[in-house]
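hey m, so remember when u said the tokens were messed up on ur end? i reran from scratch. heres the input so u can diff it against urs
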Amino acid sequence: MIVYSKHILDNGLTLLCHTDTGTPFVSVNTLYKVGSRDEDPGKTGFAHLFEHLMFGGSKNAPDFDREVQAAGGESNAFTTNDFTNYYITVPAGNIETALWLEADRMAALNISGKSLGTQKNVVTEEYKQRYLNAPYGDVWLALRPLAYRVHPYRWPTIGSSLEHIERATLEDVRDFFHRFYRPDNAIISISGNIGEKEALEKVKKWFGAISPGNCRKAPLPVEPEQREARRLVMKEKSVPADMLFKAYHMGDRLSDHFYRCDLISDLLSNGQSSRLYLRLVKEKGIFSNLDAYITGESDPGLFVCSGTLSEGIGMETAEEALLEELGRFVSDPIEERELRKVINKMNAHLKYSEINYQNKANTMAFFEFLGASELINGEGEKYEEITAGQLQATARELFRPENCSTLHYLKKERQTTT
């Protein structure tokens, strides 16, 4: 169980603190409530660009990484569709270094033509390597806009177009920074060998004088219910094998639908005793690998089945076999032992996540962002309450043909020469 305190500074900054005397370290996690969904459709990829820019130095700390390393720490960040998360882990005695660094880049990030040019080049190369040149790398550039028509989840965190990053100006990124990277749009969660009183005093010391941004976000467009099956075929690139993707719309992160879909995905594909692996990979050999997973965004997300076809298997055969298994999930009883196993796995995962102080800092910030701090310690109960009947009812609604966007990613036929 994570025991924590919560304080909100006068400038709107939220502070969460969990004391863990079992470690000599402390993790300072800073979550900004800005992700790719907050971007202008004509200027996408900015939240991810800032994941890089935030390490480019600030007014009093021109070399961010050098300061972290000198304090015996490490730092990193990640961007999602919903938020951007930064963390610094240091020996507990050096926590003020971490807070100083985070406060300095919040108050006075170095956004110069040089730093922007450098990070644009880094992101551009990442875009090319991971999304344009890697096998299947562009799947989400195609699958998201196929499944979403109006919601900003229709583009990935890297952005919908490489040109958006290439065209980004100093004015663009400075406006984005001053709008979103403010104390009243941030959550700092601290976990480790530090007491609540000391954490609050030090956070006030370093962040208290930073002015709020009074960020106002326009309501996001609500994705309308999908009422027709959508299909897309891609065969523009050389890939090792054909792949099948089926994306079904599911509930938001706080809905009962989310927790049920999470268990459904585990029953279908978590481990070598799961249904899809046993029947379609091991027994029938139709797929060489096959997964079912959820995207888990705060707004309604996607339940995705993706599989690599075995050599010699046609796409029609593979898709029929997958649909047959999904239909069997709806019609055949779920044994109590089968359900108990995946719930136990889920509970074990949740318990193990509470061991590491860095994970605890991340967990606290995430659920505070969702506005559901009670779930910091309450997710296990959500899964325990789910019945087999509820799972099948959810699956019946979920796996409707008109709720599905299907992508066939086909390999090119080899060209022969004589």
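this time it looks ok to me. The chain has two domains: 5-207, 230-409. if urs says something different then somethings off w ur setup not the seq
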